[in-house]
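INFO  loader      accepted 1 record
INFO  loader      residues=690
INFO  predictor   begin
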Amino acid sequence: MSARLVLSTFTSMLLAGTAMAQAPEIRLQEVSVEANAPQPQDGAEGVISTDGYVGKSGVAGTKTDTPFLEVPQSISTVTRQQIEDRKPQNLQETLSYVPGVRVGAFGFDPRYDAFTIRGIDVTYTGVFRDGLRQLNSPNGLFRLEPYGLEAVTILKGPAAAIYGASSAGGIVDLISKRPLDRPLREVELQTGSFDRMQGAFDFSGPANASKSVLFRVTGLARDAGTELSAVKDDRVFIAPALTLKPSEDTTITFLSEYMDSTTGGTAAYINTYDGTLSTGATREFGGDARFNDFRQKQGRIGYAFEHRFNDAFTLRQNLRYSKLSTDQKYIFAGYPGITREDTGGISADTNLESRFTTGAAAHTVLTGVDVSHLNYTSWQAFGDFTTTFPPAVPYVAEYEQTQTLVGIYVQDQVELGPWRLLLGGRHDWLSSEFTDATALQYDQKDGRFTGRAGLSYVTAFGLVPYISYGTSFTPNPGTVLNGSVAQPTTGAQVELGVKYDIPGTNAAIRAAVFDLRQENAVVYQVVSGTNVQTQLDLTSRGFELEGTASLANGLNLLASYSYNDVTIDRLSPETVGKTLSSVPFHTFALWADYTFQDGPARGLGLAAGLRYSGSSYGDNLNRPILDNAPRTFVDAAIRYDLGVLDPRLEGARLQVNATNLFDEVKQICSSNYCYWDEGRKVIASLRYRW
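INFO  predictor   done
INFO  writer      dumping tokens
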């Protein structure tokens, strides 16, 4: 299916659902923000504004509240309504319909939310929470509970000029639920595949008559298994939040979270080998259910502060302290291991927004400084093959690292008639101390400048072409290669695109082509079943097309297509010029959700989704024996508002969601190791709001 056909088909679907307004009647300012009357996402006013499935404006692209239409860079949004309709259970499922995002490269593995953007691994360096970098260590990756989210914004391409250390592929900003100025009371029960039992609640509202104090507390408890009997999916999650508004111009919101979760220490299958190279996965699970728990305890606490001095100046500060402890026990192919890791860190970002004019040009200037500090200690233990249980696993290695980043930045958004110019620059200073298992210490000090420039032209009929260029800089935690700490990863991208908000319709279409270069990226290669880290250079080129719509007739749509070609420029002599493993050349996704508005079926909602992942290579040698075949996954949902049957049940909704409905399971290979896709999963939920 060509990109032109996708665009034509999606546009025809939109025009069939609503009448299109005449272009000459649309005023410039109405197209960019007000024409579609977007509603702020619940509890996230000033952070993101959405209308159904369509993202309208937010701070993700510039750290100032800017219409997404006018930001000269690709931005995708997973709104709260999308999350409620699709019921994703982790970050990978949340992002599974976003163009350019690759999930499932390691098959079924619930331990980590591993994914790529535009062929670039962003698992460690691309996840942000409420605008602040989510600090990670080698085995300490914070897990996500989607029930605690308002929305997710995905900014594609380098954004280091404003966010500092981050992936060249882009960033994923997870927006936490925040207190509301109206009452919200919600409870939900779930059951489903693999003996799943879950209860959740979400309560919010004003704590006083003047609404100067708002609260929210969100919680969840789950006891569940997975398709592997040795792998659990248990968790307890709670997220209190409090907003104080001492004046019209001052707001401070405290955000916190605690989660205790347990899954499997390993979910891998035994591979067969030809020498040191895998020839494919067997159906034999490599672990042992008696010694296969991966428990994580994570917490965070922080605040988002804003004070508006006047129409010209606004001061903001975001701060968060986070802590994570992991305890991983596993046996793989008869060899036991334990990894325990304590990770802690603080992130803080302070900036001043200044608005002024110079002649006919209006400026929004942002100046700021942000600081992050990471400290982790890792204890690793490995045992010999044993037939006794529990296995004897003495600790043999201890690693420790502290890493501090300080960055200063300035950004100018210039509005001159229909033109939008974005210029930004930043300098970061890195200080790192790493101690390995032999007590050798590796010190690293570095400083890098990153920049971003973009230009958009906002037409009177909702079409906005743009061009942008940006660079990135990312230090690599916990990595020693060739006798020294790994070099920071750098990148640069050129992007050319067009954005279109269809006049008079709550619908948006986005298209972009890009050329991205990355140097010194840290990747894993599996050799004889062991992960080995190395660094490479690569070039990623591609094209993305995305459409979203929420129409007045009850129809919601998501449609996307992506083409991505990632070439290895430096790794080993035999891999130069090869295609990076497990990055499909073509992906396509379509989700349609319809709610009957009247008649005997009123209150009934039906939804279906299709996710296509094209062929890819299974290792960086591009050996045909590990080629990943194309695959298509079908998702579906059905729901019913019980209040239609009986007014006494107003606020009650029954819903059933299925992912991979037809149980499409194939081998998937990445970096010379093979896994199996996750099979069918069905979840039934009963939600009540009052």
